[in-house]
Amino acid sequence: MMFTSNMIYLTAVVLKKDSDAVTKALLQLGVLDFVRVSELSGGNDARIRSVQASVSSARIIENKRRIEMTMGSGSSGVFQEVLPTLDDLQDLNLDDIEKKLAEIASRSQEIKEEQRLIQQEILKFEDIIRQLSMYGSSKSITAQGLRKSSEYSFLTIQTGTMPSAFVSQFENDLKVYPSVSMITGTSQDRSSMLVISLKKDEKQILQLLDASGWIQGEIPMASSPDQNVKENALSDIQNQIRILKEQQSSLHNQYQAFIDDRLEWFQTSWSLLRSNELFYRIQSFFSATDRTVLFSGWLPAEFKTSLEAVLYQAAQKRCFLEWHEPGEITAETKGRVAVPVQLKNPGFLKPFEMLVKNFSLPEYGSIDPTPFVAVFYLMMFGFMFGDSGHGLVLVLLGFLGKFVFRKSSDSSKKLSVLIIYCGLSAVVTGALFGSYFGYPLFPPLWFNYHAIIAGHSSEYTGIQSIYDILLITIYFGIAVLGTGLLLNWINLIRKGNWMKLLFDKAGIVGGWMYGAGVYTGFYFVRHLYKALPGQTFLLIGFGIPSLLLLGKEPVLLILERKGGHKEQKISIIFFLNMLMEWIVELLEVFSGYLANTLSFMRVAGLGIAHVSLMIAFFQMAHMADGPGGESSVWSYLILLAGNILVIALEGLSAGIQSLRLNYYEFFSKYFNGSGRAYSPVSIRTRL
Amino acid sequence: MIVTSSIKRYAFINAKLKTRLSLVLGDEVFIRLIKSQNLGEAMLLLKETSFASVEAVYARTGDLKMSELELMRAEMALYQEIHRFGDKDLQEFVNALLMQYEIENFKNVFRLWFDRWIRKRDISYASGYILREPVLYTYDKDAVLAAGEDSLLLESLKGTAFVDVVKNNMDEIRTAQTLFPLEMALDLLFYNNLLRQCQKLTDKDRDIVLRLVGVEIDLENITRIIRFKLFYQFSPLQMQKYIIAGGHRLKPDKLFALYSSSGEAELLPALLGSGYGSVSALASQSQTDIYKRMEMVESILEEILKREVKKLLLGDPFSIGIMMSYFIIKKHDIHRLISILNGKNYGLPEDRMKS
After folding, report:
1. Cross-chain CB nearest to B60 (options A72, A199, A252)
2. Does residue A144 surpass a pLDDT of 70?
3. b or e along B50-64 (b: 16 or more beta carbons within 10 Å of the residue's beta carbon)?
4. Contact list, A119 vs chain B (CB under 8 Å)
5. Please, which residues 181-240 of chain B have a Cβ atom closer than 8 Å to chain A?
6. B44 touches A at CB < 8 Å
7. Predicted local confidence at residue A227, as pLDDT
8. Is residue A443 in some structural domain?
9. Which of B121, B125, B127, B345 to probe by mutation at the A interface, max A CB count within 10 Å?
């Protein structure tokens, strides 16, 4: 947990006939982060060649993607990954899968085509509506007027009579065309009718009418003087459009049901493809001679015994395994083959591990900053967002997020847990400051933040003004930077980089000057900005380390000469360079540390802003109180809106600023983010 | 003062657009779209992109043309959004850019009118694919489609910039039964209006816009000239009628001279050589198939525009350059998407869609 996991390097040789069994064993255990053998040798060993996969990986992946996509179009709306097992690793027949996928695609297109045809019917009906809408006001128009106006539109309107007995059959036959038919009156055994259709269907409609005993003629005015034909027609068309849209929707549901019915096949095929993809991915790292197969890779040292056991078992002990320490490999390959980095933290620290990885991975063998980030991040957040009520809201939001994202990616879940932690931190600091949604419900356990900002007594003698709050954050900053320096020294000692340990800005000399600077700063303030520490202190605190920094280049030169490296000539240029570098480094040390430390005042700044905003909303709510000073609905609403705004704005600001202080102030002291992530191939690897 | 106003004008808009650029479809998505087995699969790929609404329309209707309409709406929404955030001068300029969609939609409406009244075809369902909501002008598209007589047609276009263009071309439309001159005149209307609006911008912005619009005009002119030469065999004088003024490097007199003096094979290298020497080497690749040659021309011109856009994106963050680049990139994305989706719909081979 303190450092990145110890890695070990395996080089293995197995018989070709055992390679499939070995691949399965490697896939099942899933701990090896493969490195091609050619990378070790520099790629120029003619005796070994790559193993050619019998199936195209690209084809496997393409089919897998097609399945994911098609599954996602079912009723669930998303593809849900179910991890395959070794039992899924069967013989793969890509032709069969592609054939089945083509069948599914073809049927899907048939359904889409049906939807498209219905869509065109809808468009035609909508067109009829538009045409009808052009015929004056809906209240005044009559069948005669409608018929007369139709000569300029795409519509054709027939008026006349037909035997009442034929109406039902006619209306049934008419359904294949976008049209409207309406009975406007009945006299004896004949019905007066109005038929609206598109001009392009006129011929067919006339044929239908002829077959139904149609007699063309005006609708008798007496039978429908006030009949609102247009309104009725529009209503009828709307109804037909609604029916068509329902049919379209039903086809969409039919499509989703069609996909859902095949979920089992999709899932089985996906697992088959995924397991084969991983199987061939492992084999793509293999190199071969005529009778043997070679592979190599990194694994956490703790898995050495278990991997050894499964390999011996899979190869029936007909294999040769060689283990190497990371140092040997990096030296042999001159750093070409990097040691992968695995951070190993308990589950509750995973959200903070995510924050570290988001920045970068630490160098192999160095300190894993996760636990430190967890502590500092939460302290900073709590100080900036110190309100138990607001913290509780964050806790609830975090739990809600966990529920909502229960099927989503890991990072969404970790973010939800991080919000819960931040909320808990705010609950604790809120209790310390006695703030519950801005109200002092309980006495503060430490000091009353609100009272200080409002200019009242803080109920704690140690902290009485904003300056005291700022001072706390400066102390905190010094602690964070001091921790960073300490971690840097540990990293450098482990690496045996003594020069850097001594001379680096974040090395002992840098730390020495920072310590002296901190003491001098406080001394200066304590003496009301009028006195500095004695000359002896200044000489020891700043003079000696400054001179040591000046000596850095000559020491390096001597070491280079001793190490037999190319000699740098000692010339006036060398001395000028040395001087310039020294001045720049001194400036960097003084200005850099000062800026780093003062940067932590933002923690107080954000905290003050949080409290100030709440005070402002309380005052606004008070202004909205009733005439007798009683709370009104408006004052409650203002308080509610204020709290929501503060939680949203300040929560985001505090989260970002805490992250910023960790990344740019804390990490800059010791973190070398050059690590490559440990990435083993496993049957349990998620997409 | 100028600096302050340009920061005020562009800080928010450009920050927003720069973020949006991350949502632009990458080449990888286009390759996967091209490789998808059919239109349905291609649409499903869009589900996880910023074009999810297009897939939703297709899932509901199964109709590619309805999805295209959605794409056009999405494209216009980009301009309308910037319009909301811009000040008055910028809004006027954005309107000038939006004019291209108004014109595009009017062309669609007029093509239907032409089909119905000149070619006497049925347009009942096709009229469902025109955009009815107003873009810049409020006019009744259905009244246009229903107008059988010229007077009614012009009456239905009252209040738009299209009245004069239609009036001037009506005789040729009826006699020659072609929309070609009308559509060319509408393109001219767009570019002239855009160049006029440019004059209201600050010097820095005007230079950027003139350069970019000038490049677009150059590319449009090159495409036209090549088509005139290859497909229509226009005389230089006929060609001259349809040339857009305002090009960045290729002025009308130079185009006229090159058109008059070059044969089919030499025209493209000559045009590129005169204005865009850095890509003229691409034009030397011989293509015998006339369509392949046009595809090659289009890809070369696209490359030219890409280079210009890249320069602008790396330039001043508080200028109109970012906005123009964003519009061009998105327009390019949408047009490429439409081409691929149509290619899938008609079962075109992959290599035809790559161009």
Report:
1. A252
2. no
3. ebeebbebbbbbbbb
4. 61-63, 66
5. none
6. yes
7. 58
8. yes
9. B125
Determine the residue type at A194: L
Q: Is A8 within 8 Å of A328 (Cβ atoms)?
A: no
- What token pair was written down for B28? 């990888």
Reading the block at residue B57, the tokens are 């329309």
| Interchain pair B128, A127: CB under 8 A | yes
Per-residue pLDDT, averaged over A117-130, amounts to 86
> Would residue B347 be called left, alpha or beta, if left means φ above 0 and alpha means ψ between -120 and 50 degrees?
left
A14-61 confidence digits (pLDDT tens): 999 999 999 999 999 999 999 988 887 766 667 777 777 778 888 999
Percent of chain A whose pLDDT exceeds 70: 93
> Is the CB of residue B155 less than 8 Å away from at least one CB of chain A?
no
> Which residues of B, range 46-105, sit inside 8 Å of A by Cβ?
47, 58-64, 66
Looking up residue A179, the CATH number of its domain turns out to be 3.30.70.2750
Residues in B closer than 8 angstroms to A200, CB to CB, are: 122, 124
Domain boundaries, chain B: 1-85+323-355, 101-197, 201-314
CA distance B40 to chain A (A): 7
Domain that holds residue A474: 370-670
The tokens for A610 are: 């949080």
Flag whether A139 is in a domain: yes
ipTM of the complex: 0.80
Tell which wins on pLDDT, A459 or A118: A118
CB contact under 8 A, A70 and B47: no
Q: Which residues of A touch B41 (CB under 8 A)?
A: 66, 69-70, 105
Tell which CATH architecture fits domain B201-314: Up-down Bundle (1.20)
Residue A681 is assigned to a structural domain of this protein: no
- Kindly report, residue by residue over A522-559, the tens digit of the pLDDT: 999 999 999 999 999 999 999 999 999 888 888 877 87
Count of structural domains within chain A: 2
Q: How far is B45 from chain A (nearest CA, A)?
A: 7
Tell me what pLDDT residue A221 has.
45
Of the candidates B123, B246, B142, B209, which has an alpha carbon nearest to the alpha carbon of residue A200?
A: B123
Phi, psi of A292 (to 5 degrees): -125, 165
| Dist. CA A108–CA A258, nearest whole Å | 8
Say if B1-85+323-355 and B201-314 have the same CATH topology. no
Nearest Cβ partner for A72 among B37, B44, B128: B44
Sheet of strand A190-198, all strands in order from the earlier edge strand to the far edge: A179-187, A190-198, A155-163, A215-216
Beta strands A190-198; A292-300: pairing state: unpaired
The confidence score (pLDDT) of residue A568 equals 64
Q: Report the CATH number of the B1-85+323-355 domain.
A: 1.10.132.50
List, for residues A595-620, the tens digit of each pLDDT value: 999 999 999 999 999 999 999 999 99
The pTM of this model reads: 0.76
CA B229-B233-B237 angle, to 5 degrees, is 90
Contact residues, chain A, for B35 at CB < 8 Å = 62
Q: Give A77's DSSP letter.
A: -
b/e map of A223-235 (b: 16 or more CB within 10 Å)? ebeebbbbebbbe
CA-to-CA distance for B287 and B267, rounded, in angstroms?
Answer: 14
Element (H, E) at A555: helix A552-562
- Does A499 map to a domain? yes
Residues A365/A676, Cβ–Cβ less than 8 Å: no
B38 to chain A, any CB pair closer than 8 A? The answer is yes
Q: Which of A124, A132, A198, A409 to mutate to test the interface with B (most CBs of B within 10 A)?
A: A124
Are B62 and A112 a contacting pair at CB < 8 A? yes
For chain B (355 residues), the mean pLDDT of every run of 10, in chain order, is 69 87 84 88 89 92 92 87 87 92 93 89 82 91 87 92 94 90 92 90 90 86 85 85 86 88 78 72 59 70 80 86 89 88 88 65
